[in-house]
Design a protein that fits this description.
Strand order of the largest sheet: 3-2-1-4-5-6
CATH architecture of the largest domain: Up-down Bundle
CATH class of the largest domain: Mainly Alpha
Structural class: alpha/beta
Strand content: 5-15%
CATH topology of the largest domain: Na+/H+ antiporter like fold
Number of helices: 29
Helix content: 55-70%
Shape: elongated
Largest sheet: 6 strands, parallel
Radius of gyration: 31 Å
C-alpha cells in the first residue's frame, strides 16, 4: 500500500512537471497545467491514479496552507479596510447569485423550489485557491480589483457554513430554522472565542518558542497553529480553509509573521499543486463528449451570470466601473467548496447523478478557463465600457458632485496613486513649490487627504475624461505609482496619446515590465526590485570605501540596461560622529581621479576647492602611500584617491566641481 501511494506521487509530480513545463513554454499559467495533469491522471482519463481519495487529502492540506499564507499577509487592520467589500460586495454578490440561479432553475430547468435554491448555493461560490494564486502571480493582490475579489471571496467562505446547515432543511429531513439559527449562533460565538484567545495567547507562545532558537520547533509550532485552528473550526461546522485563514490573521499581528511565511511557503507551493490536480481528476471526459452542448451552455451561463452579478455587487460597494468589471471576470468560475456542497446535496437527494456530473464537468471547465479570462479581462472590460453606455451607472453611483475643473493648473505634476511612493513625492513637491494634483480611487484616502489640504481627486486614471480633468494637456510630468499592471499600461498609453510632450515616470514591481511600458510611451520606469538591488550594492561598495564617483559610474552603467530611473541613490555620508562627537555635523567622502580627468596635473592650490565649494582635502592616497594634510603644491595624478571633509552639501558641490572645468575658469579669474 505504501509503495502504491509512493508510485502515485511519482506519477503525479512527473506528469504535472512535464505538462506545466510544456504549457509554460506557451506562456499558459501553471494552474491550467495542474488541472490538465489531473484530467490525464484521473480515473476518467488514463486511469494512472486509482487512489484519488489519498490525493484529495493532500490537496486539502494545500488549500489549508494557501489560506494560511493569505491570512499571514493580511492583518486585522487590513481586514477591517476590506469590510465594505466583505460585508457589502460579498453579501450582494451571494444574494443576487442565489436569487438569479433559483429563478433560472425554476423556469428553465423545471426544478423544484428546494433544488433550485440549492443550485443557487452551488453557483454563488468562486474558487478562492485559483483566484488568489493568479492574483499573487500577477502581482495584483493589492490592486483594487484584487482587494475587491479577496473581500468577496472571504464572504463566500463564510457562507459555506449556513449553506451546509441549510442542506438538510432543503432536503426535508433536517431540523427547524430555529435549530439552524442556534447552531450558527454557537459556531460564531465559539469562533469569536477562538480569535480572542488566539489574539492574546499566540504571541506569548511564539515568543517562548523563539527564545529556544530552534528553527525546527518554530516550524512545527506554526504548522500546528495552522492545522489545529483549521481542525477546531471544522468541528464547529466551519470550513477548514476559513480556520486556516483566521490562524494566519492571528499570527500576522505578531512580529514573527515574515518568518512564518518564509518557512511555510515551500510546503504551500507543493501541496497547492496537488489541489489543482485533484480537481482535474473529477472531470469525466466521457460525460463531456456525450453532453458537450449542455455542458458548454452551462459554462457560458455560469461565467456570464457571475461576471455580471459580481460587477454589480462591486459597483454597489463603491468601486469604479472598470474595477467592478474586472472583479466580475476574476470571480466568474465555480469554487472548490461547491464540490463539497454538491457531494452533500447529492447524498441528501437535492442533486441527481446526471446533474452532478454535468455540474462537475462545467465547474472544472470554468476553472480551466479562469487564467485565460483573467488575462483578457483588461481588454474586454475596456471594450465593454467603450461600446456600451455603462458610464452612466458609475455617474449614478457617485454620491459626491463632480470635482471642479483644474483649469488654472499648468506645468504641474499628476500623481496617480497615493500610497507610500505617492505621498513621499507629494511631500517633496510641496516643499519644493512645484504644483501637483493627485488621482486616487480609494474614497477613504481621498476623504482623509482632502481634509488635510491635499489637491486630491477621486477617479480612475484609465479614463481619458478623468485625465482631462486633471489637466493632462497642460501637465509637465505624470507619475504612475499604483499596484495594477494592466491599469498602469493603459494610463501610460492614454497620457502619451493625449499629450505627446508629457514626461511619464512609472513605478512598477518587476523589471520584466519595463520594456512594455517604455514602448507604450513611458520616459522612465522604476522597477522596485531593480532599484532595491542598486541600493544594496551601492551601500556595500560604500562600506568598502569605494569612491563615490566610482559607485555612481557602476549605477549608471547598470541602469543603461534597464533605462535610467528617476531617483538617484543617495549614498550615506560617513559621519565622523563615529570618531569624534564634536564633529557630528561633518562628513567625509572619497573621490578617485581617473585617467583624463581635468584635475590631473594640477595642484591643490590651483583648484581653489575650499574657496569654491567649502570642502577640504585632508588626505590623498597614492598607491600604498597616504599623504596626510597634503601641502598646497601637491600635484594630482591619475589613480589618486582624495579624502574630502565638509558638510554634505559642500562635499556634493566639491564632487561636481572636480568633474567639471569650473576650477580652470576660477583659476584664470583669480
Amino acid at each position: 500500500m505504501e509503495l502504491e501511494f509512493l508510485k502515485s506521487l511519482v506519477l503525479i509530480f512527473g506528469v504535472s512537471a512535464i505538462v506545466v513545463f510544456v504549457l509554460g513554454k506557451l506562456r499558459i499559467p501553471s494552474v491550467v497545467g495542474f488541472l490538465i495533469a489531473g484530467v490525464i491522471l484521473g480515473p476518467h482519463g488514463f486511469q494512472l491514479i486509482k487512489e484519488v481519495h489519498e490525493v484529495e487529502l493532500l490537496a486539502e492540506i494545500g488549500v489549508i496552507l494557501l489560506m494560511f499564507t493569505i491570512g499571514l499577509e493580511f492583518s486585522l487592520r487590513n481586514l477591517m479596510m476590506l469590510r465594505s467589500q466583505v460585508l457589502g460586495g460579498g453579501f450582494v454578490q451571494v444574494t443576487l447569485t442565489v436569487l438569479a440561479v433559483t429563478i433560472m432553475s425554476l423556469f428553465f430547468l423545471n426544478q423544484k423550489i428546494n433544488a433550485a435554491i440549492f443550485d443557487g448555493f452551488l453557483v454563488a461560490l468562486s474558487s478562492t485557491a485559483i483566484v488568489i494564486k493568479l492574483l499573487m502571480d500577477r502581482a495584483e493582490i493589492n490592486s483594487p480589483q484584487g482587494r475587491t475579489s479577496v473581500g468577496i471571496l472571504i464572504f463566500q467562505d463564510l457562507c459555506v457554513v449556513p449553506f451546509m446547515l441549510l442542506i438538510p432543511i432543503l432536503a426535508g429531513n433536517g431540523g427547524s430554522f430555529r435549530d439552524i439559527a442556534l447552531t450558527m449562533f454557537k459556531s460564531f460565538g465559539l469562533l469569536a472565542a477562538v480569535l480572542i484567545t488566539a489574539r492574546w495567547a499566540v504571541p506569548f507562545i511564539l515568543h517562548e518558542i523563539v527564545k529556544t532558537r530552534s528553527r525546527e520547533l518554530f516550524i512545527i509550532t506554526i504548522i500546528l497553529l495552522c492545522i489545529g485552528t483549521a481542525f477546531f473550526t471544522s468541528r464547529l461546522g466551519l470550513s477548514l480553509a476559513l480556520g486556516a485563514f483566521l490562524a494566519g490573521i492571528v499570527i500576522s499581528e505578531s512580529e514573527y509573521a515574515s518568518q512564518a511565511v518564509a518557512d511555510i511557503m515551500p510546503f504551500k507551493e507543493s501541496f497547492i499543486g496537488l489541489f489543482f490536480i485533484s480537481v482535474g481528476m473529477l472531470m469525466n471526459v466521457s460525460i463531456l463528449k456525450e453532453d458537450l452542448v449542455t455542458i458548454m451552455a452551462a459554462v457560458i451561463s455560469i461565467i456570464a451570470l457571475k461576471t455580471i452579478i459580481t460587477a454589480i455587487a462591486s459597483l454597489l460597494s463603491g468601486q469604479l466601473l472598470r474595477i467592478s468589471i474586472l472583479s466580475g471576470f476574476y470571480l466568474s468560475q465555480i469554487g472548490e467548496f461547491s464540490f463539497v456542497l454538491a457531494l452533500a446535496g447529492k447524498k441528501a437527494g437535492l442533486l441527481e447523478e446526471y446533474g452532478y456530473q454535468i455540474f462537475l464537468s462545467a465547474s472544472v471547465i470554468t476553472m480551466l478557463l479562469t487564467p485565460f479570462i483573467i488575462i483578457i479581462s483588461p481588454r474586454v472590460s475596456e471594450y465593454l465600457i467603450s461600446v456600451l453606455p455603462l458610464r452612466s451607472f458609475e455617474r449614478i453611483k457617485r454620491k459626491k458632485p463632480r470635482e471642479e475643473l483644474l483649469s488654472k493648473k499648468s506645468d504641474h505634476v499628476i500623481i496617480v496613486g497615493f500610497g507610500i511612493n505617492g505621498r513621499n513625492l507629494a511631500r517633496v513637491l510641496k516643499e519644493s513649490g512645484i504644483p501637483y494634483v493627485i488621482l486616487e480611487i480609494n474614497t477613504n484616502t481621498v476623504r482623509k487627504m482632502k481634509k488635510r489640504g491635499e489637491p486630491i481627486y477621486y477617479g480612475d486614471g484609465t479614463s481619458a475624461e478623468i485625465l482631462h480633468k486633471m489637466g493632462i494637456h497642460r501637465a509637465k510630468v505624470l507619475v504612475v505609482a499604483i499596484s495594477d499592471p494592466a491599469a498602469t499600461r493603459k494610463i501610460v498609453q492614454i497620457a502619451k496619446h493625449e499629450n505627446p510632450r508629457i514626461y511619464i515616470i512609472v513605478r512598477t514591481r518587476y523589471v520584466a515590465e519595463v520594456d512594455d511600458l517604455v514602448k507604450l510611451g513611458a520616459n522612465e520606469v522604476i522597477p522596485e526590485e531593480f532599484e532595491t538591488s542598486i541600493e544594496i550594492f551601492s551601500r556595500v561598495l560604500h562600506h568598502y570605501q569605494v569612491p563615490r564617483n566610482v559607485i555612481s559610474e557602476h549605477i549608471e552603467n547598470i541602469r543603461k540596461d534597464s533605462y535610467i530611473a528617476l531617483r538617484t541613490v543617495e549614498l550615506p555620508g560617513r559621519q565622523l560622529i563615529e570618531r569624534h562627537e564634536f564633529l557630528k555635523d561633518i562628513e567625509t567622502e572619497t573621490y578617485l581621479i581617473k585617467e583624463g580627468s581635468p584635475v590631473s596635473g594640477h595642484s591643490i592650490k590651483e583648484l581653489h576647492l575650499r574657496a569654491e565649494t567649502g570642502a577640504t582635502i585632508i588626505a590623498v592616497q597614492r598607491d600604498d602611500e597616504i599623504h596626510q594634510n597634503p601641502s598646497p603644491d601637491f600635484v594630482f595624478k591619475p589613480g589618486d584617491v582624495l579624502l574630502l571633509i565638509g558638510k554634505r552639501k559642500d562635499i556634493k558641490n566639491a564632487i561636481e566641481y572636480l568633474e567639471s572645468d569650473r576650477f580652470l575658469v576660477a583659476r584664470y579669474q583669480r
